[in-house]
Design brief:
It is a single chain. The protein is 37% helix and 8% strand. It has 217 residues and is mostly helical. The protein has two domains: 118 residues, no CATH class; 51 residues, no CATH class. β2 and β3 form a beta hairpin. The relative contact order is 0.10. The N terminus is likely disordered. Belongs to the cytochrome P450 family.
Length: 217
């Protein structure tokens, strides 16, 4: 996991040379500057992207940095970088002990971050920033989260039956096309099945029976 460099306050590295006892008798690690290097602008992110995807691969990429800096909390660039993400600089948390800090909203901002260091254009989501890209400090985050949990709870008895029904229909459609034409496209029927499932399971509405018809996906 990784979080934006600009929004993470100093955290304790899991590797240190000196162990200091706390007043409660528990072992406490001293606060250290997070090691790592972002390299030269543009060149550093491109090099890290090549290492991550091609030269080393994901696991070796992080393992080599752990060995280089002797720490499981490091500064690095995270793909995709230029020209897709304007700011690839992250602090990577590569052990279980440091991971919980990601849930501390006073130290980590999650605005416009979800699966990487960039947010897709809102043109893909009707001009709205969806819940995944809202920071917990934003007012709409709590409201949308409550709405989603309400939908999950109120539709719990429909999820499994509708999933089975929608995907049975999918495979029947594919089989019928194979019998009639000798070939079939899986992509469009699969998109339709997923869209039907969401509407029927969570909203109790079948999009095919509305004005949307089969144009929903």
């Amino acid at each position: 996991m990784a979080s934006r460099d600009a929004t993470v306050e100093p955290i304790t590295s899991s590797v240190s040379d000196t162990m200091l006892p706390s007043e409660t008798g528990e072992t406490k690690l001293p606060v250290k500057k997070i090691p790592g290097d972002y390299g030269l602008p543009f060149i550093g992110p491109i090099k890290d992207r090549l290492d991550y995807f091609y030269n080393q691969g994901r696991d070796k990429f992080f393992k080599s940095k752990i060995q280089k800096y002797q720490s499981t909390v490091i500064r690095t660039n995270m793909p995709p970088g230029p020209f897709i993400a304007s700011n690839p600089k992250v602090i990577a948390l590569l052990d279980g002990k440091s991971f919980p800090i990601l849930f501390d909203v006073s130290k980590v901002e999650k605005k416009n971050l979800f699966t990487g260091t960039y947010m897709p254009s809102t043109n893909l989501t009707g001009g709205y920033r969806i819940l995944s890209y809202l920071d917990p400090s934003e007012p709409k985050h709590t409201k949308l989260k409550q709405l989603l949990f309400f939908l999950l709870k109120s539709s719990s008895n429909r999820v499994f039956p509708e999933f089975e029904a929608c995907y049975n229909e999918l495979f029947k459609t594919v089989e019928n096309e194979l019998n009639e034409k000798g070939q079939s496209s899986f992509e469009k029927p699969n998109e339709q099945a997923a869209f039907n499932f969401l509407g029927r399971a969570y909203f109790g509405s079948n999009s095919v029976d509305t004005k949307l018809g089969i144009d929903g996906p």
